[in-house]
Structure formats: structure tokens, C-alpha cells
């Protein structure tokens, strides 16, 4: 029972979703819309589960003074302060996005700089890694190196200043070889997704139950 | 030979320092380079330009702070063009942490337009000329569901105001009432707009994406599943050029140009050192 009921629910839901997606007529259309609204509501509640799990694991770390507990404390403090600012803003203005509010202050001066810094650091690591890794050790590596050089220069204004054919070559690389490879990858992913979905709907794939 | 060994193993701190300098100097000195307009960006611009005045346009904010330097300049340029064409903007977002950027952008451009306008008709008003519907969890379901009825997912706007009380939304029920969707993408949501809203409901779509995501959009562009593509900071700079409003996109491209040149210079040096030391070892 513990396994069969979830399998039956998965089978029926998967079947109904597929049928209603391709048959938008009554009563399928309304049935699909209802299921989509349910999905959206259920997903909203999964956020609460995520918060519960995040707080539980970090509070446990703090209580047990486990290694790195100070970071867990910073996370919990950040969560509580942001939530308090969010509630205060929402009660006062009926919107979290009110410019100049305490929530937007935290967003603009804490969240944005932190996220931007994390991402900006990548540029430095990529530069250092590219310098060390991009060596013409083989035919394939040389081809990759030349292609990368053409795309890097062709994508920026200085490339056209150096040689006006560089942007044209860059366009060709992006539109022909790059796209051919990407199409192959995407077709593979799509077929894999269909196969995996069918396995889940038919109950052949059961790892999600454990 | 010591020279070649040195250039094949430059200290990473020197690379970091030089990269920092070539990014900061062009921005501080406001250097400018001419921007070439590519075909995908021109197509996006032309499509929006040729829509009938007053068309309903959805803008989906699907990015956050990590991609803001690339996407925000194109968002501001797109807003400028849409408002200049008197299009009506329906804003929403699939990334909760990106929505404030949507609000900041709307506030910036509407204030800019309103400070120049001489009459109520030329001014932009919330609810009449633009609305912000906000964020709903489960964007795949929402994308399909909006094809039937907006109110099933957005009964209220981001402030909790019922959408039926907003004049702009009075005649907007599903994708048949939308002339174009502009997806500003830093992740998967762009593919899903195209697959669910574009393929199933025939919604016309223009994508603005980060430099990393843009290559994944080229096959949609070639198959004419999207009407145009604004890719990366270069795309943002091109759009700023088209709407004649230079901003951080154009400024950033000079920094990016010099950073690319520097990186290629380092790669060249590394290879020179590698081959010189390799020849020595082989002997």
C-alpha cells in the first residue's frame, strides 16, 4: 500500500496532465487549468518545507557547536532579519517592492552586492584558469583555442576594429558549428526527458519513492 | 630560457591585478568604442518598433543580481522603446529575487518619461500604461495556465490590488490579448516560455539573455520560434545604441573588450612559454 498508492497517483496524474496538455477542449481544458493551479499552490507550500529544512539543519549545527556553526548563525540571523524587514515592509506598504523600504534597503545594499561579488569573482578565476588550461597540446585543443579566440574577439567592439571580418567569422561559428552541436545535445536531452517521464509515469522508475 | 618558464607560469595575482585594471580604467575614464548592430538584435528592435501602437507587451524578469549588469541595461532600453511606441507593459517575474530589478527599472523609466511629458496623455500611469503582476511559484504551470486565463494565476497585482480594477488588464485574459512577450533570461525560463507559451499558444517572443544563455537560443531564432535575440552585454550595448540612450551596456563593452584582449594576450604568452620549454625538454 505504501508504495502502490503513490504509484497509482503518479500514473493517473501523469496521464491526465499529458492528455489535457494535448487536448485543450472541454472538459480537458478546465481540468488542466485546475491541475495547474493546484501545482502552483503545492509548489508555494514546498517553499515552507525548504525553509523548515534549512532552519532545522542550521539550528542543529548551532546547538551542537559543530564546525562552521558561526556561518550557520550568520545564515539564521540573515534569514530572521530579512524576514522581519519583509514583514514590516509588507504590513506598512502592502508590497515588498516599495522603493526606499527596509526590505528594499537590505535587497539593494546586502543581497545585490553579495550576489554580484560572487559572480564577478568568477571573471578572475576564469581568466587565471583559461591562461593555465588553454594550451595547444593537441589538434583538438588548438582548434578549441582558435575558435575561442575568434568568438572572444568577434563578440566585442574591439574585434571589429582590429579586423572587420572577425564579427562575421564569429557569427558563422555561432550559427553553424555551435548550433549543430547544441541541436544534437538538445535532441538527446529531449529524448532522455521523454523516456524518463514515461518510466516515472509507468512506475518503472521508483527512486523518487525512497 | 628562464624567461619562457616565467611566462608559462605567471603568478595568478598579476593576472587578477591586470584584469582588475583593464576593467576599471575604461569605466572610470568613460572610454567608448563603436558598436556594430547584429542581425538578431536588429530583428528584436524592428519587431517591437513595428507592433501597432498601444500593443500589450509582457516583460518577464527571469534574472537576479548576478546577471543584472548584463540584463538590466537591455531591460531599460527595451522599456524606453516600448514606452516611446506607447505599448502597454505587463511586468512579471519567474525569479523572485529579480523582481525588485523590474520595479526599479519601471520606476526609473516612467519617472524619466513623466519628467519630460507635458500632459496627462503623455505621462505614464500605473494601471493604465503599465502594471506589475509580481511572482507566482511554479512558472511552468503558470506559463501554460496563462494561455487560458490570467486571473487564475494573477487575481491581484504585486500590491494585492485586484487586476480587474486596473484599466490595462480589463481586456487582458489570455495570450490572444498579448502582442509580444519579452523574456529577460539568466536560466531555464526562456526555453520554457518558448516551449509552453510560444509553441502551444503561438505567442510571439523576443529573448534578452546573458552571454552564457544566448548561444542556447540561436536554434530558436533560426527556426523563427523567437522574433529576436539580445545576447549578453554586447546585445545590451547594441540595444542602447539603437534606442540612442547610452548607458552601462556601452560603457561595459569597452571594459569587456580590453579584458578579452588581455586574456588572449595571457593565453598567447602561456602558449609561447609552453612551446619554448617543451622544445627544450624534447632536446
CATH fold-level topology of the largest domain in chain B: Rossmann fold
Distance between the termini of chain A: 14 Å
Structural class of chain B: alpha/beta
User: How many separate structural domains of chain B?
Assistant: 2
The computed structural class of chain A is: mainly alpha
3D shape of chain B? elongated
* Total strand segments of chain A: 0
User: How do the SSEs of chain B run, as a string of H and E?
Assistant: HHHEHEHEHEHEHEHH
| Largest β-sheet summary of chain B | 6 strands, parallel
Strand order of the largest sheet of chain B: 3-2-1-4-5-6
Distance linking N and C termini of chain B: 13 Å
**Which word captures the global form of chain A?**
extended
Q: If classified by CATH, what would the architecture of the largest domain in chain B be? A: 3-Layer(aba) Sandwich
The parts of chain A where pLDDT drops under 50 for at least 5 residues are none
Most residues in contact: chain pair: A-B, 61 and 68 residues
- How many alpha or pi helices of chain B? 10
Overall description:
The complex is a heterodimer of chains A (210) and B (283). Chain A has 210 residues and is an all-alpha fold. Chain A has helices spanning 4-22, 28-63, 69-93, 102-133, 139-154, 157-162, 166-175, 177-201. In chain A, helix 1 (4-22) crosses helix 2 (28-63), helix 2 (28-63) crosses helix 3 and helix 5 crosses helix 7 (166-175). By secondary structure, chain B is of the alpha/beta class. Chain B folds into two domains: 2-27 and 260-282, no CATH class; 36-245, Rossmann fold, CATH 3.40.50. Chain B contains ten helices and six strands. Chain B has helices at residues 2-7, 12-28, 39-50, 68-84, 99-116, 139-145, 189-201, 218-222, 232-242, 248-282; strands at 56-62, 88-93, 130-135, 180-185, 205-209, 228-231. In chain B, strands 3-2-1-4-5-6 form a six-stranded parallel β-sheet, with helices on both faces. In chain B, strand 1 (56-62), helix 4 and strand 2 (88-93) form a beta-alpha-beta unit. In chain B, helix 2 runs antiparallel to helix 10 (248-282). Chains A and B meet through helix 2, helix 4, helix 5, helix 6 and helix 7 of A and helix 2, helix 5, helix 6, helix 8 and helix 9 of B.
Amino acid at each position: 500500500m505504501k508504495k502502490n498508492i503513490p504509484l497509482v497517483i503518479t500514473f493517473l496524474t501523469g496521464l491526465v496532465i499529458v492528455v489535457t496538455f494535448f487536448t485543450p477542449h472541454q472538459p480537458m481544458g478546465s481540468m488542466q487549468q485546475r491541475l495547474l493551479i493546484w501545482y502552483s499552490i503545492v509548489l508555494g507550500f514546498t517553499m515552507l518545507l525548504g525553509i523548515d529544512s534549512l532552519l532545522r539543519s542550521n539550528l542543529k549545527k548551532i546547538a551542537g557547536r559543530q564546525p562552521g556553526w558561526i556561518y550557520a548563525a550568520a545564515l539564521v540571523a540573515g534569514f530572521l532579519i530579512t524576514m522581519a524587514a519583509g514583514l514590516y515592509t509588507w504590513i506598512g506598504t502592502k508590497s515588498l517592492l516599495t522603493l526606499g523600504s527596509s526590505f528594499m534597503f537590505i535587497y539593494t545594499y546586502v543581497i545585490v552586492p553579495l550576489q554580484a561579488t560572487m559572480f564577478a569573482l568568477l571573471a578572475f578565476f576564469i581568466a587565471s584558469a583559461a591562461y593555465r588550461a588553454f594550451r595547444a597540446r593537441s589538434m583538438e585543443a588548438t582548434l578549441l583555442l582558435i575558435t575561442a579566440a575568434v568568438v572572444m574577439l568577434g563578440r566585442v567592439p574591439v574585434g571589429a576594429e582590429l579586423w572587420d571580418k572577425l564579427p562575421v567569422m564569429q557569427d558563422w561559428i555561432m550559427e553553424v558549428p555551435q548550433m549543430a552541436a547544441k541541436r544534437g545535445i538538445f535532441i538527446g536531452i529531449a529524448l532522455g526527458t521523454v523516456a524518463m517521464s514515461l518510466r516515472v509515469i509507468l512506475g518503472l522508475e521508483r527512486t523518487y519513492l525512497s | 630560457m628562464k624567461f619562457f618558464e616565467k611566462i608559462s607560469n605567471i603568478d595568478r595575482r598579476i593576472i587578477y591585478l591586470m584584469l582588475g585594471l583593464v576593467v576599471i580604467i575604461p569605466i572610470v575614464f568613460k572610454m567608448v568604442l563603436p558598436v556594430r548592430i547584429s542581425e538578431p538584435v536588429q530583428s528584436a528592435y524592428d519587431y517591437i518598433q513595428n507592433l501597432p501602437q498601444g500593443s500589450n507587451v509582457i516583460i518577464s524578469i527571469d534574472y537576479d543580481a548576478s546577471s543584472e549588469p548584463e540584463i538590466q541595461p537591455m531591460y531599460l532600453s527595451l522599456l524606453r522603446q516600448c514606452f516611446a511606441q506607447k505599448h502597454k507593459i505587463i511586468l512579471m517575474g519567474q525569479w523572485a529575487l529579480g523582481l525588485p530589478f523590474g520595479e526599479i527599472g519601471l520606476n526609473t523609466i516612467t519617472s524619466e518619461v513623466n519628467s519630460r511629458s507635458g500632459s496627462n496623455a503623455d505621462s505614464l500611469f500605473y494601471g493604465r500604461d503599465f502594471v506589475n503582476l509580481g511572482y507566482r511559484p511554479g512558472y511552468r504551470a503558470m506559463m501554460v495556465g496563462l494561455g487560458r486565463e490570467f486571473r487564475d494565476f494573477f487575481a491581484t497585482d504585486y500590491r494585492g490590488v485586484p487586476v480587474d480594477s486596473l484599466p490595462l488588464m480589463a481586456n487582458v485574459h489570455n495570450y490572444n490579448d498579448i502582442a509580444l512577450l519579452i523574456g529577460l533570461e539568466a536560466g531555464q525560463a526562456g526555453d520554457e516560455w518558448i516551449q509552453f507559451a510560444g509553441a502551444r499558444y503561438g505567442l510571439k517572443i523576443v529573448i534578452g539573455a546573458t552571454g552564457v544563455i544566448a548561444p542556447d537560443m540561436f536554434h530558436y531564432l533560426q527556426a523563427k520560434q523567437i522574433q529576436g535575440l539580445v545576447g549578453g552585454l554586447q546585445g545590451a550595448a547594441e540595444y542602447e545604441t539603437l534606442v540612442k540612450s547610452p548607458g552601462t551596456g556601452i560603457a561595459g563593452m569597452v571594459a569587456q573588450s580590453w579584458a578579452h584582449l588581455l586574456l588572449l594576450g595571457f593565453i598567447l604568452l602561456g602558449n609561447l612559454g609552453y612551446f619554448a620549454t617543451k622544445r627544450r625538454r624534447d632536446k
